[in-house]
Amino acid sequence: MDNAEQLRMFCDRFMNEMKSVMRNDHKVDLNRLLNELNESVKQKDPLSEWKGNIFYPGFEPETAKYSYDNFTPRKGDVLVASYPKTGTTWTAEIVRHLMHLNDKEMQQKSRKFNLVFNYLEFGPIYKYEAVEAVDFERRCFGTHLPSSLVNLKKFRKIIYVIRNPKDQLISWYKFTKGQPYTVLPKDAKEFYDLHIQGAFGKPGEGYLEHVREWYRHKNDNNVMFLSYEDLKQNPLKHIKEIAEFIEVKVTEGEISEIAENTSFKSLNKAYQGYAVQPNRMFRKGQIGDWKNHLTIAQSEAIDRKVEEILGDTDIKFTYEI
Questions:
Q1: What is the value of pTM for the model shown?
Q2: Which residue has the higher pLDDT, 231 or 110?
Q3: Mean pLDDT over residues 274-290, rounded?
Q4: What DSSP letter does each residue of 113-179 carry, written as one string?
């Protein structure tokens, strides 16, 4: 199967799921949406950009700008913001379970509001017609945009997720290696070296700059900072904190149930047959797996970058347990 066919199948599956969660009276031209989505996910040469930020295939500067200027979230919507491979999908799953805590049918249905449509900057602008037709009172959105490209005042609740940059790097390499694009190196050393230098966002910048920019909003009333490693080590405590932040009343028993239902094992089972496959999105989810992949020199280079960029903040990454 060639890359073009892979991408067409990708778009078809996500579109079919999305159709099932839209109101019956929607006026969305589904053929137009599918055609524009197919065009959006094609690799562009050169890559597009907005305000100096590079956008990879599927992520559209025009859509990001439309989101900033024109999209109005609903009162109960939540935005999960992050750099790639830091725990976005997992956190969004927890949020989704909390939003539909006492409605199992809606929990099932809301799985189909998938990443093509719930990422602010992904896909064509026209996808927002479908987003508005989603028949949910509360929705969970995602973004990998820096804070300067997100209209922060629009969202009442934003959760920003961080993860140690060594595990993030390995997870991202393993994820992108299987993607049908040639914009990122397939060779591990080339990929590691490129992204330690910085290559997602503005040229020469990367994950740590993304964290630093969002860090400026850490104490904003509508922003919650969440550590992937903290959530991994103590899910009950941090699921409760997420619930309080997004204003969902939850019992200790319900927290335990959500922790079980959002474990990697449970999600892999629950999403069988869906367009989003957790085993592609999550991989191992381990803390400290980077030690099996990075050289001492690469690890030390990341340590130096962390000190250089985040040394004057109170962020302390957890690299192993």
A1: 0.93
A2: 231
A3: 65
A4: S-HHHHBTTBS-TTHHHHHHTB--SS-EEEE---GGGS-GGG-SEEEEEE--HHHHHHHHHHHHHTS
